[in-house]
Amino acid sequence: MSFALEDQIVMALRRVSQAIDIWSRTLWRDYGLTSPQLATLREILAGENVTPGTLATALHLSQPTVTGILGRLEQRGLVRRERSGTDRRSILAVPTDAGRKLASKAPPLLRDNFRRELAKLPPWQQSEMLSTLQHVAAMMQAPEVTEGPFLFVDDKMAKNSTQKKPRKRRKKMHSE
Prior knowledge:
The chain is mainly α. It has a single domain (about 5-150), classed as Winged helix-like DNA-binding domain superfamily/Winged helix DNA-binding domain (Arc Repressor Mutant, subunit A, Orthogonal Bundle), CATH 1.10.10.10. It has eight helices and two strands. It has helices spanning about 5-30, 35-45, 50-60, 65-75, 95-105, 110-120, 125-140, 155-160; strands spanning about 80-85, 90-95. The protein has a two-stranded antiparallel sheet with strand order 1-2. Strand 1 (about 80-85) and strand 2 form a beta hairpin. Helix 2 crosses helix 4 (about 65-75). It is elongated and about 65 Å long. The N and C termini lie far apart (about 60 Å).
């Protein structure tokens, strides 16, 4: 059976989405972290004087999303927020010992098989793949990553979420 190019693209994107979803579920089940939370924790560990603004820029997340992630990481005792010693206006994200320990135990954000196959490619091809994926995201007008897991909602996560649910609008009754 022959599929149109657009259909083949959709099927390939669906396969990628399913693979990300499966990995995200595993990460959540085994470590209690979403991919954006783990990426944020690791970015904090990699930097010095890390502010919510620098995290947002580095991770391509919105500032409010980073603030929510930091709140959840802080609730779990994985990071703490403190005032900068050099600029009292700035708040820094600082990892705790528990955050360091969890980040060191957690797996990479990409599955091992993908990482092995990627490593087999020459550097120019790895860069080309990244560029193509970034271009696809831009073509699809994909928004910046949000805090939640990539493609699933876990009952436990939904209960722990601090995001407000949209309120239903009541229909106005017009009297005649």
